[in-house]
Amino acid sequence: MSTSSDSNINVTDSKPTVALVDDDTSMLRALTRLVHTAGYSVKAYASAPEFLDDCIASAVQCVVVDVQMPGMDGFELAAALAQRGVSIPMLYITAHDSPWAREKSVDARAQGFLVKPFDPKELLGIISGIVQPECA
Fold first, then answer.
1. Residue 21: closest CA among 98, 96, 78
2. d(CA 107, CA 129)
3. Burial classification of residue 106, based on how many CB atoms lie within 10 Å of its CB (0-12 exposed, 13-18 middle, 19 or more buried)
């Protein structure tokens, strides 16, 4: 069914696709490995504008996005998606926890809010809860 060799898999098949948006290259790489190993298709982006440029073409079921990024932060990304009429469940991650960020994530109807470093199992649990097919 599934192979363990994956040099650069970008085949979606019927696997849910998770988008990862983080300006920290090492975090993005680690998240990509983690989420891919858990059985999801992954699309990784180093910035919010990069994700927005590809967003229409990519059918993603969940976005894991860093709160603080240069240029456009995670909340601004959510607002830009809403302005385009695009509704994708968002899970916010941050290294800079604050009451403001938590409140903002609630206002943005986030599916989750995790502070780095977080438990990988917790991240995967939230993703799993978001992408589980309703018709199964």
1. 78
2. 20
3. exposed
What would the pLDDT profile of 36-57 be if each residue is shown by its tens digit? Answer: 999 999 999 999 999 999 866 5
Q: Vertex 102, ends 96 and 105: CA angle to 5°?
A: 110
What's the alpha-carbon Rg for the chain, to the nearest Å? 14
pTM: 0.85
Domains of the chain in sequence order:
17-129 (3.40.50.2300)
Q: Which residues fall within 8 angstroms of residue 42, CB to CB, at 6 or more apart? A: 17, 18, 19, 20, 32, 35, 36
Beta strand pairing call for 112-115 and 90-94: parallel
Helix and strand numbers (H, E) in the chain are: 5, 5
- Other C-beta atoms closer than 10 Å to the C-beta of 18 total 25
- Per DSSP, helices labelled H in the chain are 25-37, 48-55, 74-83, 99-107, 120-131
**Alpha carbons 124 and 112: distance in angstroms, whole number:** 11
- 14 vs 133: CA distance, rounded Å: 11
